[in-house]
Write a structure and sequence with these properties.
The chain is α+β, with helices and mostly antiparallel strands. It is built from 30 helices and 24 strands. The N and C termini lie far apart (58 Å).
Length: 997
C-alpha cells in the first residue's frame, strides 16, 4: 500500500547516498528551458509505417474504452490484494500487455501529468552494459519517430512545458520513468503530447551519431557527481550489497562501458526491455479519464516488439560470509578514510527481499514497524539533544531495489571516540528490543501518526495530479498497491486494539534480526579504526539503556503563560486584491487574512518582523547561521525542545525560522483546529524566549563537522562561498568557518538575538482553510497581546550588501577530483519595488541566456551537464541584486565558458533573441505563474510587506504579463543595459594546483 502506509521518514539519509538516480536533467534546475540544438549532424527521422500513423483528433465519445477494466473486475494493480481499490483511478490493459491507470484531477487546473514507466533500470544491465539504461533515457529525448535531432525539448517548451520541471526522466536501479506535466492541456495539446511520447518510447533513433553525441553529456553528469562523496557512495554500496548486482550497478554507469557503447549494443538493450508488457502508464489530470485511456489506446495500442519477453534478472540475496554465527551475524565491515568528510557510521541488518501480497494484514505490520522506528528515533534524538556522543542518529527499514529488506542504523560520532557513540546507539536499540515501550510512549506515537493520516484525508482534494501519478508508478516499482487517504486512516484506526507495547517490541526485534550485519565507517583521520575493530565493536555484547526513553506526559497549552492583555482590532478592510483582508491591531501589528478553499484542510501562517540580515554587523555573521539552526530549539515560555515536541503531540503544528535580507520569518503549515495554538507558539517565542545552550552547542558541532566537506567539490564551494564572493566577501552571506564558530558563545548568541526578537513591526499572514472570526480572536490573544514593538533604526544596520566587483576575478581551489571545476559570471542589477516589472523581464532574458549556454556548453561541447542562470532582485531596497550565469565543467573548459558567455551577451545586446527563442521562454514562464498562482504559498510570497506598504500592490496587476509578454527589442535593451555595458565578476573554482590562463 503506497504511499501513506509508509510512515514519515526522519532524515532519509541512506538510500539516495547508496543508490542515487540519474535524470535527463538534474532536479536543482528550477525552471530549465533548454534550447533547440543544431541539426547539422542529425539523421533524418524515419516516417512511421502506415499502421503507425495517427490522426490528430481526440475521440468524441467519452464512454469506457474497450481496454478499461470494469469495476466488477479486480484491477491489475490489486491482484492478490484485499486493499480497498481506489476507485478514482480507472485501470486498463491493452491487448499488447501494456497496463495503464487514468484519473481525473484538477490540481493544478488544466494540467495533465503523464508518467511512462519501463520496468528496467541499471540492475537489468549486463556487465558490458553498465550505464545503458540511463544512456537510453537521454537518447529518447534526442531523436525519435516524430521529433528530429534536438527537437524534443523545444517542442515541449512550445507546448508550455519547462525542461527539468515539467518534462524529465529518471533512471533508478529498477525502473526508468519518463515524466510530463502538460499545462493548459486542451484536446489538441493532449493528442500531440501522447503522439510525441509514443514516438519517443516506441521508436527512438539509436544511431552512432546520437550515441557519440550523448555519451559526453552523460559523462559530464557523472563528472559532476564525483569526489569524496561519490567515492564513499561507491564503497559503501559495494560493502552493503557486495554479493548482489546492486553493488556494481549505479545508474550512471562507468566511463569504460559508456565510452565503449555502440548503437548496436544500446539498441539491443532497448529491444530487450522496452516492450509494452514491461510498460505502465499513469495519467492524472484535468481531463476525462476515459479520454485519457483512449489516447493511450490510440498511440500505444499498436506497439509490438518481436521475440519473447526476457526474464527479470536475479538480483541476488544478501548472504553472510562463511563462519558467521546465526546468533551474532556480523559479517563484512570496512573503514574508509576521507580527510575532508565528517565522521559517519552506518551498519545494516540485511534480510532477503521477498515479494509480498499487499494485504491489509501486511500493511498493519508495516505500520507497526513504522511506529517501532519512530519510538527508537525519538529516543535517539533525545539522547543527541541531551549531550550524547553523536550529532544525530536514525534507524530506517527499507526494501532496497527489490534486492534486500534491510534495517539501516546511521549516526555521526562527535569525536574520534566512535566506539562510545556506537555503544550509545546500540544501547538505545537494545532497550527497544528487550523491553516494551510504555503505554504512554506508544500512545504519543500513535497520536502523531493519526493526526498525519487525518491531515491526508482533509487535504486529499488538493493532492496534485503529478504526485498522484508518481505515487502509482512508485507503487508498481515496489510491487504494492495504492490506497486512498481514507483507506489508510481506516486501516490504521482499525488495528489500534492490536497495537500493544508487547506487539511493538516483537516487531522491533524482527527489525533488528537478519541474515547478516554489515558496518561501514567513514573517518577523516588515518589510523582511527580498522575493519576488525569495527567488526568487534558490532559483535560486542551491549546492555540495554532505557535512560533515553521519553517521558510521555503531554503539556497543555492552558498551562502556559498568557502572552499579555489581548489586543483589539483598530482597523480592517480589503487589501484590494483577491478578497484579502487587512487587519491592524492595537499594538501596531498588522495581518493579512485570506480564508479560501483552494487548499482544503491547510492553513499557511507566516510572521514577518525585524530587519533580517541587515540587522547584523559583519563581526556577528556566525550568529546568523547558528540562529537559523538553534534559535527555535533554544525554547520559550519555560519549555525546551523536548517540551515543545510534547506540546505538539496530536496536533498539526510547525515552526520554521528564516533570515531574509530585510526581515525575519516564522512560518508553519497548520489547520483550523490548531491555528490558535500555532499563533501562540510564534507569539511566545517573541514574548518569553529561553536561551537553552544545548541546541547552540549542537549547531556549532554540526557546523564544525560539515565545513571541510564543502571543499571536496566545486559544487560544495559554490554552496559555501558564492553568495559571499559576489558581495565582496561579506561574511553575512557566507558559511562561517570553524574558527568563526569557535569564537561564538551562548552568551554572545543571546546578546545578539535577544534584542532582535524585540525589534520591528510585525506582519502576520494567514491564508487557507480557516474561520475568519476565530482567527482574529486568536490573533488578539497572541500576536495582538504582545507589547508595542520598537521600530527598527536604519542607523543600526550593518553595511549595505556590495555589488559584484566589475571586471574582478576570484579563484578558489577545491580538494576534489582533478577533472572538476566550476565557473560563475555575476553582473550587478537593481533591487526594490520601483522597477519590479523590469526585474521580471530580466527573468526572460535569463532563460534565453540559459538556453544558449545549454546549447553551447552541453549540446555542442559536452563540457557541462547543467549550465544555469539566475536573477536575484531583492524586492526590499537593500541592494545586492545580481544576474548570475554558472556551470560545472572541466578545468580546461573554464575559458570556453567565458568566451561563450561573452559572445552570447554581445549577440543578445546587438541582435536580440529570435521570436521563437522568446516564445519558448515566455510560454513556459506564463504557465509556471498561472499554475503557481492557484496555491496560497505563491500569494504569501508575492504579497509579503503589503499590509504596511500598499504601494507594493501596484505591480500585482502586471505580474503575468511581465513574465510572459516581451519583444525581441525589449530583451535586446535589457541585455545591453545590464550585461553588455557592465563587466561581470568572474569566479572560477578549480582543483588545487591548477593554473588558469
Amino acid at each position: 500500500m503506497h504511499p501513506a502506509s509508509r510512515a514519515p521518514r526522519f532524515l532519509a539519509l541512506l538510500l539516495p547516498f547508496f543508490l542515487g538516480a540519474c535524470a535527463i536533467f538534474g532536479p536543482d534546475r528550477a525552471a530549465t528551458l533548454p534550447p533547440e540544438p543544431q541539426h547539422e549532424a542529425s539523421q533524418p527521422v524515419a516516417n512511421p509505417a502506415p499502421e503507425q500513423q495517427h490522426s490528430a483528433s481526440v475521440p468524441a465519445n467519452p464512454g469506457p474504452p474497450a481496454s478499461i477494466q470494469p469495476t466488477s473486475e479486480t484491477p491489475w494493480l490489486y491482484e492478490g490484494s484485499n486493499i480497498p481499490v481506489d476507485r478514482q483511478w480507472r485501470f486498463g490493459v491493452l491487448d499488447n500487455g501494456l497496463r495503464y491507470a487514468t484519473r481525473e484531477n484538477g490540481v493544478p487546473p488544466d494540467q495533465v501529468s503523464i508518467r511512462i514507466r519501463i520496468d528496467a533500470g541499471s540492475l537489468f544491465e549486463k556487465d558490458s552494459e553498465r550505464g545503458y539504461a540511463h544512456l537510453l533515457e537521454h537518447l529518447l529525448f534526442r531523436q525519435s519517430r516524430y521529433l528530429g535531432v534536438g527537437e524534443t525539448i523545444p517542442t515541449w517548451q512550445r507546448l508550455g512545458a519547462t525542461f527539468g520541471n515539467d518534462t524529465n526522466a529518471v533512471t533508478s536501479a529498477t525502473q526508468t520513468v519518463f515524466q510530463l506535466d502538460l499545462p493548459e492541456a486542451d484536446p489538441a495539446k493532449l493528442d500531440e503530447a501522447f503522439k510525441l511520447l509514443s514516438g519517443m518510447i516506441e521508436a527512438p533513433v539509436i544511431n552512432e551519431v546520437n550515441v557519440r553525441t550523448e555519451v559526453p553529456i552523460v559523462l559530464a553528469e557523472k563528472r559532476e557527481r564525483g569526489g569524496p562523496n561519490e567515492r564513499v557512495a561507491n564503497e559503501s554500496r559495494d560493502l552493503f550489497f557486495h554479493d548482489q548486482m546492486l553493488a556494481k550497478r549505479p545508474p550512471i554507469g562507468t566511463e569504460e562501458t559508456l565510452e565503449a557503447a555502440t548503437a548496436e549494443d544500446v539498441e539491443a538493450f532497448y529491444k530487450r526491455w522496452y516492450r509494452p508488457q514491461e510498460t505502465v502508464i499513469a495519467v492524472a489530470g484535468d481531463a476525462d479519464p476515459y479520454v485519457l485511456a483512449r489516447l493511450i489506446e490510440k498511440y500505444f495500442g499498436d506497439w509490438s516488439v518481436e521475440g519473447e519477453v526476457s526474464p527479470e534478472p536475479d538480483f541476488g540475496d544478501p548472504t553472510p560470509p562463511a563462519g558467521v554465527a546465526a546468533d551474532n551475524p556480523v559479517g563484512e565491515t570496512a573503514v574508509m578514510v576521507e580527510p575532508d568528510l565528517p565522521r559517519s557510521l552506518t551498519y545494516s541488518v540485511m534480510r532477503k527481499w521477498e515479494p509480498v501480497q499487499d494485504t491489509i494484514t501486511y500493511n498493519e505490520g508495516l505500520l507497526m514497524d513504522a511506529l517501532a522506528q519512530s519510538l527508537i528515533n525519538r529516543r535517539l534524538e533525545a539522547r543527541a539533544r541531551s549531550g550524547g556522543d553523536y550529532l544525530y542518529a536514525q534507524v530506517q527499514q527499507e526494501d532496497v531495489s527489490r534486492s534486500t529488506d534491510a534495517t539501516f542504523v546511521s549516526f555521526a560520532p562527535l569525536t574520534e571516540d566512535w566506539q562510545a557513540a556506537l555503544a550509545d546507539v546500540r544501547a538505545v536499540i537494545a532497550d527497544a528490543t528487550t523491553n516494551p515501550p510504555t503505554e504512554e510512549e506508544l500512545q504519543r506515537e500513535i497520536s502523531e501518526y493519526d493526526v498525519a493520516f487525518v491531515a491526508g484525508v482533509e487535504e486529499a482534494a488538493v493532492e496534485a495530479g503529478s504526485k498522484l501519478a508518481d505515487t502509482l508508478i512508485n507503487a508498481v516499482d515496489i510491487r504494492e498497491t495504492v490506497a486512498s487517504p481514507q483507506t489508510v486512516l481506516d486501516i490504521f484506526r482499525g488495528m489500534r486494539d492490536r497495537v500493544t507495547p508487547e506487539a511493538i517490541m516483537e516487531r522491533t526485534k524482527a527489525l533488528f534480526a537478519g541474515d547478516v550485519i554489515r558496518g561501514f565507517y567513514v573517518t577523516p583521520q588515518q589510523g582511527e579504526a580498522t575493519a576488525g575493530e569495527l567488526r568487534a565493536a558490532l559483535q560486542a555484547p551491549v546492555e540495554a539503556d532505557g535512560s533515553a526513553r521519553i517521558a510521555a506526559k503531554t503539556i497543555d497549552f492552558a498551562e502556559l503563560p498568557k502572552i499579555g492583555t489581548p489586543g483589539t482590532v483598530v482597523a480592517d478592510g480589503p487589501l484590494g486584491i483577491l478578497g484579502i483582508e487587512r487587519v491592524e491591531l492595537s499594538n501596531g501589528a498588522t495581518a493579512l487574512l485570506w480564508p479560501n478553499d483552494a487548499e482544503p484542510g491547510r492553513v499557511a501562517v507566516n510572521v514577518h518582523f525585524g530587519a533580517g540580515l541587515r540587522a547584523f554587523d559583519t563581526k556577528d555573521a556566525p550568529y546568523i547561521t547558528l540562529g537559523e539552526s538553534a534559535l527555535i530549539s533554544s525554547g520559550f515560555a519555560g519549555l525546551d525542545q523536548e517540551d515543545i515536541d510534547r506540546l505538539a503531540t496530536g496536533r498539526k503544528l510547525g515552526f520554521d525560522f528564516g533570515v531574509d535580507l530585510a526581515t525575519f520569518t516564522f512560518s508553519a503549515e497548520t489547520r483550523q483546529a490548531d491555528l490558535a495554538d500555532q499563533l501562540y507558539l510564534f507569539a511566545a517565542k517573541l514574548a518569553y524566549p529561553e536561551w537553552d545552550a544545548r541546541p547552540l552547542a549542537r549547531a556549532k558541532a554540526g557546523e564544525r563537522l560539515s565545513y571541510d566537506n564543502y571543499a571536496t567539490s566545486p559544487a560544495g564551494l559554490l554552496n559555501r562561498d558564492l553568495e559571499s564572493l559576489i558581495r565582496n566577501g561579506d561574511p553575512r552571506f557566507g558559511t562561517p568557518t570553524p574558527e568563526m564558530v569557535e569564537k561564538t558563545s551562548a552568551e554572545g548568541f543571546r546578546k545578539v538575538w535577544e534584542p532582535l526578537l524585540k525589534e520591528g513591526e510585525i506582519e502576520v499572514m494567514i491564508f487557507g482553510d480557516f474561520d475568519r472570526d476565530a482567527a482574529i480572536e486568536s490573533l488578539e490573544k497572541t500576536i495582538g497581546a504582545l507589547p508595542p514593538r520598537t521600530s527598527v533604526d536604519p542607523a543600526t544596520f550593518g553595511p549595505r550588501p556590495a555589488a559584484p566587483e566589475a571586471g574582478g576575478r576570484e579563484v578558489e581551489y577545491h580538494r576534489g577530483d582533478a577533472n572538476q571545476a566550476a565557473v560563475v559570471l555575476a553582473w550587478p542589477v537593481g533591487s526594490g519595488p520601483a522597477e519590479i516589472s523590469e526585474s521580471r523581464q530580466l527573468e526572460i532574458l535569463s532563460q534565453i541566456f540559459m538556453n544558449r549556454l545549454f546549447d553551447e556548453m552541453r549540446e555542442r561541447a559536452g563540457a557541462s551537464y547543467a549550465p544555469q542562470t539566475r536573477v536575484d532582485w531583492p524586492v526590499d531596497d537593500v541592494g545586492g541584486g545580481t544576474f548570475i550565469a554558472l556551470a560545472q565543467l572541466r578545468p580546461g573548459d573554464v575559458t570556453a565558458f567565458y568566451d561563450a558567455s561573452e559572445k552570447i551577451v554581445a549577440d543578445l545586446a546587438t541582435n536580440g533573441p529570435t521570436e521563437d527563442e522568446l516564445a519558448r521562454v515566455t510560454e513556459p514562464l506564463r504557465q509556471t505563474i498561472l499554475r503557481a498562482s492557484t496555491g496560497n504559498g505563491f500569494w504569501m510570497w508575492q504579497l509579503r510587506g503589503t499590509s504596511r506598504d500598499p504601494t507594493l500592490l501596484k505591480s500585482m496587476s502586471s505580474l503575468v504579463e511581465d513574465y510572459s509578454v516581451a519583444t525581441p527589442e525589449r530583451i535586446k535593451q535589457l541585455a545591453a543595459k545590464y550585461l553588455a555595458s557592465r563587466k561581470p565578476l568572474e569566479i572560477a573554482i578549480v582543483p588545487e594546483g591548477t593554473q588558469l590562463p
